[in-house]
Automatic annotation (TrEMBL):
NCBIfam families assigned: ATPase-Plipid (TIGR01652), ATPase_P-type (TIGR01494)
Protein name: Phospholipid-transporting ATPase
PANTHER family: PHOSPHOLIPID-TRANSPORTING ATPASE, PROBABLE PHOSPHOLIPID-TRANSPORTING ATPASE
Organism: Amorphochlora amoebiformis
Location(s), subcellular: Membrane
Length: 1193
């Protein structure tokens, strides 16, 4: 503004020459000598004062006060008008008021100017107070304000005139406001401008329409001093509320109390009918009503709780609220008023470009600062900074919507993920006697969020449900964020139900395979827990893929990295026995079992069936607006997208809906500049270098960047556009404030798109050693009574300033010819890239991507493929199980209808009691009568090796107390320390070796095969890793019976314990705790084939008591196939799941063939978006065709 005033004074004949310290020199046309003024004091501008003044000493020694400010602040300080003469009369003041009103009506920023002469004595007295206030250390601002009031006292000033400065709207503002309003966002315009100026800007910006009904809150001029102003505002608000009640608009609002009854069916969460409700939601139902309130009215309203309530009730139904002549305090107070008093609390966004907007920006939920003419105070105090207002549209509708949906996905996923993890532990707790045993190894459990972090981070950063062009064309899609449709109670309940189903699947599928793992000799608590955990990790990755709308290379990388990290952790951690002794070699044993990999597919496959079933039913019967949008977007763009250079390049090159941002006119040539006085505003002197010099250096960098950017972008595009376009626009470097800056701050060259393809465009900038602003007649118009001046501004630059050198007079040329940049000066790559954002596909989110919505076709095909995979795997499991043989003899314990001998492959136990003798049934700890013989015939050939195992039921080895009792120091042979044991630690002065419940409850039944031609080997039945990690302590077995109570002291009937101690493989097998109460453990092996019809007789020494806890014992002979042990339950479950998927796919296919739903398309989306402009509807949307969307930028 100040630069414009200086330029205007120059056009009137008063030239600002220079300033040195407090001395200001000007030159007046027609005068031979220059004038020098001395600045004596400065009374700064504040939003409360609405004015600023300066005390100066004129060349003739006279002291004057010069004041400028808002007309309301200036006119009240004027002395009475002169009755005679032709200056400062009542008529003159009336003329100035009319001019001010005319300026305001045309959207100009107005100022009133006044002055007065101060007697010397009065000045000296006042100056003492001024100096004292300046030096004050407490309440300095208040003291200066008080001193300024004294010198600017009421009734002392003479009116000089008024000014109007054009504040031209930036490009794209009306279009941006229209689309933002169409998205359901309500505008409150808070400005310090006059009422007329604010209303005019409202119309020009599109906030107000021609047929808008304006409600005004303000004090009429004839009502001043008559009655209480608060009563007037109360009456005005009452009248507005009455009018709104008559029209019925007071019950609907876009940012007030929104309930489900007011928004009957928020689209995206109910059905296709609810999409119509978007058009009848609060934003669409509002009439064209706007509320205009003045700053003085706000003072009374904010001071009264009753008026505040009435004001909010009147403002909520209005589409626009305009507050004029408001201070920064009023701006922030209004934001706080809306946040605290409207329920539910609306999300507020404040956007501004000046220091006066800082309080408002900080008070809102989201603050956005516009960098530019008004400095960077607003940007520094904001959450986001943008260069122009029109970028707010993309920030909100595109990035805001994307980020809202992303963060909602992340939050819902994290909730679902951790809920599923906890539920699996809860389900397993029921299998462990509700004892608190953890299913997962501790470090693995703690790393769960790390293993599953990368894919969801990629989704949270780069996922795009629909492309930016689609969102910009259909702003109604913003409804998902406005009505919180992606994160609410319904979404949470949906995720809870999904987590419950998935948790059951994660535990159930490994549970069905556990008997086969036991039979194969790889069962155990940590194996089962690691298998469930692995299934859970795979399930989480599948879930992320299901949530992902857009797949990029980084999404794929994140999935790969997640899997690689997890398996790298398992393989690495599995050999670090010093970190987790119990976990040693567990992952290797687990991965060696083929059933593990089969289960790893079954868990996400089963979850996929239930998820796809739910999605198909919802999308077909209750499609949402988001479903329509994704399908329409797919119809427009297809599944794949090659990506673009970046968002900045798009904005520079423009698109069909936006004007170009930067361009150059070909054959522009500015020569022979005319010398003029140096343009040097106040405070420009800085270390011998003026602001103009700094501006010229920056402009040279800007121009170079612009040329390089245009050339590089066009080379990358491969000259796809036509080169036959004609030149349509010329240079516009003016004094006026425009969309990119104003005089004294920056300049921009504007050229149409055709200029870029001109075969010989060039720019010649002539420089002068004088380093001054130069003028030449050609285009600039400045209005002044009685005379019109036309000027143009030529910006002089010194390109060698980039190298910190001075230069003499020179003429530099920058030429662009056929996409080539040549000539002087030569700018380095660092100069080109200075302050430029990263313009690449990653940072601008325009990566090459693949996007396929879950249409019925995709769902049906996926179910068909899944069914085939389940049927194939189920068949393989059953065939492999048929290749495994088993013979089970239940000989002791609580007998039920399921006991007996099982010699049939895969069948349940036969009920033949003759093989159950009372001599083998122990109901107490009686040592007598515990030997029995069991004979049976093997009906099928069993190939070597044949494993002899024992099966114990209802024994909770996974009980927390049982699991806790062992000492790693003892089992690794380091010491006899019992610090880790909870039970069986010492007896008198002797130490149990090894200590703990597991070691003191070894299965001590013995099996003697009475067939003389067959031998049972008891070696190599433990894991190789177990044989490596178990070691006896030093001096074993000499310590037994003395300082330690060893295993053979407790179990003398197990002869190998005396010699081998904890290195006994039978002890190792027993000490590898089972995951379930019913478990099978190996006792020995037969290294020769058993022919069909062979008879076997076992002598069983039944020492282990099981009847007391309701258990049973069985002798089991088994062989393994390639899959391990028998897994009939798993195979049958897979076949059932495959059949169910196939049947469901066929039902969906028949439904699609007979009565398909109309898929989303541009036409359908236009229908629900409001196809084309509608007369009388405020949130008008322009008609957009498919071609306008698919054409691209």
């Amino acid at each position: 503004d100040e630069a414009a005033l200086v330029a205007g004074a120059m056009e009137a004949g008063y030239h600002f020459v220079a300033r040195k310290g407090n001395l200001v020199t000007i030159r007046v046309d027609g005068e031979a000598s220059e004038r020098t003024y001395t600045i004596l004091a400065l009374n700064s501008f504040t939003s409360k004062r609405k004015r600023m003044s300066v005390v100066v000493r004129c060349p003739n020694g006279e002291v004057r006060l010069l004041l400028k400010g808002a007309d309301s602040a200036v006119f009240e300080r004027l002395k009475p008008p002169e009755s005679k003469g032709d200056f400062d009369t009542a008529a003159w003041r009336s003329t100035i008021r009319r001019r001010l009103d005319d300026f305001a009506v045309h959207g100009l920023r107005t100022l009133a100017l006044a002055c007065t002469t101060i007697p010397e004595e009065e000045y000296k007295s006042w100056k003492l107070q001024y100096d004292k206030a300046t030096a004050s250390l407490t309440d300095r601002d208040k003291s200066l304000e008080k001193v300024a009031e004294e010198i600017e006292g009421l009734g002392t000033l003479t009116l000089l005139g008024a000014t109007g400065i054009e504040d031209k709207l930036q490009d794209g503002v009306p279009e941006a406001i229209r689309d933002i309003q169409a998205a359901g966002i309500t505008f409150w315009v808070l400005t310090g401008d006059k009422r007329e100026t604010a209303i005019n800007i409202g119309y020009s910006s599109g906030v107000l329409l021609e047929n808008s009904v304006l409600y005004e809150l303000g004090l009429p001029s004839d009502a001043k001093g008559k009655i209480n102003p608060s009563q007037i505002y109360h009456d005005q608000l009452s009248a507005i509320l009455m009018k709104q009640k008559e029209t019925g608009d007071s019950v609907t609002t876009s940012h007030g109390k929104i309930s489900r009854s007011q928004v009957p069916g928020p689209a995206h969460s109910i059905d296709i009918k609810s999409i119509n409700d978007v058009k009848s939601s609060p934003v669409q139902e509002l009439s064209h009503e706007a509320l205009v309130v003045t700053g003085k009215a706000l003072e009374h309203i904010l001071a009264s709780s009753r008026l505040r309530g009435m004001f909010l009730r009147a403002a909520k139904p209005c589409q626009v609220v305009i507050a004029c002549r408001v201070s920064p305090k009023h701006k922030s107070a209004l934001v706080v008023l809306v946040r605290r008093n409207i329920k539910p609390e609306p999300i507020t966004l404040s956007i501004g470009d000046g220091a006066n907007d800082v309080g408002m920006i900080r008070a809102a939920h989201i603050g956005i600062g516009i960098s530019g003419r008004e400095g960077r105070q607003a940007v520094n105090a904001s959450d986001f900074g943008i260069g122009q207002f029109r970028f707010l549209k993309r920030l909100l509708l595109v990035h805001g919507r994307w980020n809202y949906r992303r963060i909602c996905k992340v939050i819902a996923y994290v909730f679902y993920k951790n809920f599923t993890l906890t539920l699996t532990m809860l389900i397993y707790a029921c299998m462990a006697g509700i004892s608190g045993t953890s299913l997962y190894e501790s470090l693995m459990y703690n790393g769960f969020n790390f293993f599953t972090m990368f894919p969801i981070v990629a989704v949270g950063c780069m996922d795009q449900d629909v492309r930016a062009e689609t969102v910009e064309a259909f702003p109604v899609l913003y409804v998902s964020g406005r009505l919180s449709l992606d994160l609410n109670a319904g979404v949470i309940v949906e995720n809870i139900v999904t987590a419950i189903i998935h948790a059951v699947i994660v535990v159930l599928v490994p549970y069905l395979s556990y008997s086969g793992l036991d039979q194969a000799g790889v069962g155990g608590l940590y194996v089962f827990g690691t298998m469930v955990f692995s299934c859970l990790v795979f399930l989480m990755q599948y879930r992320v893929m299901l949530l992902t709308a857009t797949f990029t290379k980084y999404t794929t990388y994140s999935l790969i990295v997640s899997f690689v990290l997890y398996f790298t952790f398992l393989l690495s951690y599995g050999v670090m026995d010093f970190l987790s002794w119990e976990f040693y070699k567990v992952p290797y044993e687990m991965m060696s079992a083929p059933v593990f990999w089969i289960v790893l597919f079954g868990v996400p496959g089963t979850a996929l069936y239930f998820d796809f079933l739910a999605k198909y039913v919802r999308r077909e019967l209750f499609p949402t607006l988001m479903d329509i949008a994704t399908e329409a977007d797919y119809e427009i763009h297809g599944a794949s997208d090659s990506g673009e250079n970046g968002g900045i390049s798009r904005m520079i090159s423009g698109n069909k809906q936006e004007d170009r941002m930067i361009s150059l006119k070909s054959n522009l040539e500015v020569k022979n500049p005319v010398d003029s006085r140096q343009f040097s505003p106040q405070s420009e002197i800085e270390n011998g270098r003026t602001r103009n010099q700094r501006l010229r250096s920056r402009f040279m960098i800007f121009l170079g960047k612009t040329l390089k950017r245009i050339v590089s972008n066009k080379e990358q595009e491969g000259r796809k556009n036509s080169m036959a376009s004609s030149v349509t626009s010329g240079p516009q470097v003016t004094y006026r404030r425009n969309q990119s800056g104003n005089i004294g701050r920056r300049a921009v060259l504007h050229v149409s798109s055709a200029d870029i393809h001109d075969r010989s465009p060039k720019v010649i900038i002539t420089e002068s050693k004088s380093d001054r602003w130069e003028e030449k007649d050609s285009g600039f118009s400045f209005s002044h009574p009685g005379k019109t001046y036309k000027r143009t501004l030529t910006i002089l630059t010194n390109p060698l300033r980039l190298k910190k050198k001075r230069c003499s007079r020179t003429e530099s040329k920058i030429e662009v010819s056929n996409s080539r940049l040549t000539g002087e000066p030569t700018l380095t790559q660092e100069d080109w890239n200075q302050n430029r954002p990263f313009d690449n596909p990653f940072f601008q989110q325009t990566l090459q991507r693949w996007q396929e919505p879950l249409t019925p076709k995709i769902i049906i095909i996926t179910l068909f493929v899944t069914s085939l995979a389940f049927i194939l795997l189920g068949s393989l499991v059953i065939v492999a199980s048929n290749g495994s043989r088993s013979v089970t003899v239940t000989y002791d314990g609580v007998l039920s209808s399921s006991y007996g001998i099982n010699t049939k492959k895969g069948s349940s136990s036969l009920h033949e009691k003759k093989h159950i003798t009372r001599h083998c049934t122990i109901g107490s700890y009686d040592k007598g009568g515990r030997v029995c013989n069991v004979s049976f015939i093997v009906h099928h050939k069993m190939k070597a090796p044949v494993f002899v195992s024992y099966l114990v039921t209802n024994l909770y080895q996974n009980y927390y107390t049982y699991k806790k009792g062992h000492s790693v120091s003892q089992l690794t042979g380091k010491s006899l320390s019992t610090e880790d044991c909870a039970y069986y630690t010492t007896k008198g002065k002797q130490t149990y070796y090894p200590c703990g419940l597991a070691a003191r409850s070894i299965f001590n039944d013995t099996y003697v095969l009475l067939n003389p031609d067959i031998t049972i080997h008891t070696d190599n039945i433990a894991w190789p890793g177990d044989r490596y990690k178990y070691k006896n302590v030093q001096n074993y077995p000499n310590i037994c019976g003395n300082e330690a109570i060893c295993l053979n002291d407790t179990y003398p009937d197990i002869p190998e314990l005396q010699e081998q101690g904890v290195t006994s493989e039978k002890f190792m097998v027993w000490n590898r705790l089972a995951a379930l109460p019913d478990f099978m453990k190996r006792w020995g092996r037969i290294e020769e084939d058993i022919e069909a019809g062979s008879a076997f007789t076992f002598q069983i020494d039944a020492n282990y008591p099981v009847a007391s806890f309701g258990g049973s014992k069985s002798l089991v002979l088994t062989t393994n196939s390639w899959i391990g042990g028998q897994n009939y339950f798993l195979g049958i479950s897979y076949l059932a799941m495959g059949s169910l998927c196939l049947l469901t796919a066929l039902v969906f296919l028949v439904k699609q063939s007979m009565c398909p739903r109309k898929m989303g398309s541009v036409e359908l989306l236009q229908e629900y978006d409001g196809a084309g402009p509608t007369e009388g509807n405020f949130t008008v949307l322009s008609s957009r065709s498919k071609n306008s969307l698919s054409g691209g930028p």
